[in-house]
Amino acid sequence: MNRGLERKLLMAGSIWNMITALITIFGYSTWFKKTGVQGLQNTSVDTMFVGTTMIDSVSKVIVTFGLFMFVGAIVNFLIARNMQDNSIQRKTLIWIVCWGLFQLCVMDVIGFLLFLIAFVIYTAKNKAIKLSQSRLESMS
Questions:
Q1: Are 117 and 6 in contact (CB under 8 A)?
Q2: pLDDT computed for residue 39 by the predictor
Q3: Which of 28, 29, 47, 117 has the maximum number of C-beta atoms within 10 A of its C-beta?
Q4: What is the DSSP string of the chain?
Q5: CB atoms within 10 A of CB 66
Q6: Predicted confidence (pLDDT) per residue in 51-105, tens digit
Q7: Percentage of residues in the chain with pLDDT exceeding 70?
Q8: Taking the CA of residue 47 as centre, how many other CA atoms within 13 Å lie in the half-sphere pointing to its CB?
Q9: Are the CB atoms for 119 and 100 separated by under 8 Å?
Q10: Distance between alpha carbon 16 and the CA centroid of its chain, in Å?
Q11: 109-120: burial string, b at 16+ Cβ within 10 Å, e else
Q12: In which band, very low, low, confident or very high, does the pLDDT at 45 lie, cut at 50, 70 and 90?
């Protein structure tokens, strides 16, 4: 069985994750810092100190999340590139499930749908591969 459709879906998911990671790292992090500092302009010195510390901590979490998504996108790209035709790769299946559930947890609907469709097609082709292998074994 050719795994072309699964490769394309994983590549699309990888590109989507890369785009969202870059937007998170550069767009959302910058916006959060800017609006956080603007919100602290008319406050006391103690509140400003605590607020800037909190803003820095939250922006580090935002950047860390973006980097995690970026690394996940690279892993998805490598998995899609190294996917083998006519074989069942259990680790690939486990990765697709885990990453799809992660996409669901972070409420990335587009990413979740891409990985869900890739999972369904991958498992369906696994079943077809198992059936064809069992038929070959029964013929010999």
A1: no
A2: 86
A3: 29
A4: ---HHHHHHHHHHHHHHHHHHHIIIIIIHHHHHHHHHHHTTTS-HHHHHHHHHHHHHHHHHHHHHHHHHHHHHHHHHHHHHTPPTTS--HHHHHHHHHHHHHHHHTT-HHHHHHHHHHHHHHHHHHHHHHHHHHHHHHH-
A5: 20
A6: 889 999 999 999 999 999 999 999 999 999 999 998 999 999 999 999 999 999 9
A7: 100
A8: 8
A9: yes
A10: 8
A11: eebbbbbbbbbe
A12: confident
All residues at 6 or more sequence positions from 85 whose CB lies less than 8 Å from its CB, including other chains: 1, 2, 3
Give the amino acid at 108: D
> What's the token pair of residue 71?
């690394």
**Amino acid identity at 41:** Q
Q: Which residue has the tokens 């939250």?
A: 58
Task: Read off the tokens for 73.
Answer: 């996108």
Query: Alpha-carbon distance 102 to 112, whole Å?
Result: 8
How high is the mean pLDDT of the chain? Answer: 94
pLDDT at 47: 85
**pLDDT tens string 101-118:** 999 999 999 999 999 999
Joined tokens for residue 87: 């074989």
